[in-house]
Design brief:
- It contains eleven helices and two strands, in the order H-E-H-H-H-H-H-H-H-H-H-H-E.
- The longest helix has about 30 residues.
- Helix 5 packs antiparallel against helix 8, helix 5 runs antiparallel to helix 9 and helix 10 packs antiparallel against helix 11.
- The N and C termini lie far apart (about 60 Å).
- The protein has a two-stranded parallel ribbon with strand order 1-2.
- With about 240 residues, it is mainly alpha-helical.
Length: about 240
Amino acid sequence: MGQVDLFPIYLSFKVALLSTVFSLIPGLLAAYLLSRSEGKATDVADALLTLPIVLPPTVLGYYLLVILGRQSVFGRFLEQQFGVTIVFTQTGAVIAAMCVSLPFFIQSARTAFASIDESLLHAARLLGRTEWNIFFSVMIPLSWRGLTSGVMLAFARALGDFGATLMVAGSIPGKTETMSIAIYNCLMNGDERTAGLLVAIMTFLSLAVLYGMKRMEKKMGRGGSRHAPHKHKKNISGI
């Protein structure tokens, strides 16, 4: 009783790190399109990408099971063609964590992109820069504080996920048991000491992330663009 198994801590960091890394490219692309576009299609896309924030994690986990489960079309295809099973694996845990954390990164990145002075982007276009060149050489450097905050928030959300991860990856000791799941299992087994220690670790990490984000916000307030001029947006429905 009370002996701490380090595997859930290791797995939680591994899952959070991988899910955050895999969220970068789709998250940056989605944030860019949402920040530079408007219209009904943009509103629908924004709502769909934000939905995981308000959905109960178990509901999101259910959707993932329907899509990725062994009885689903996609799940059977992966197993028959490649011998790959996602449910009850660490891969499933990464996918679940990515789905719950990606919207947080998108919202943070979108806000950072939208705050960029439009005149800087216009000047880059006058110099002959392409839109993708402007994105990588102008927008990302100017938004790095907001992007960093988004990465930290997504990492923290992935680190603490319980419902979606439990639904997709299960609770297999030594294989898919993350910190949040380990806390639940410890309480169910009456091991309050270990549960308390894991809770303290999770709380410390969450506070560290929030503190880092607040520091970033203060730096952005002092040195970032505080007032963004009117932006000329295009309709995403034509993409």
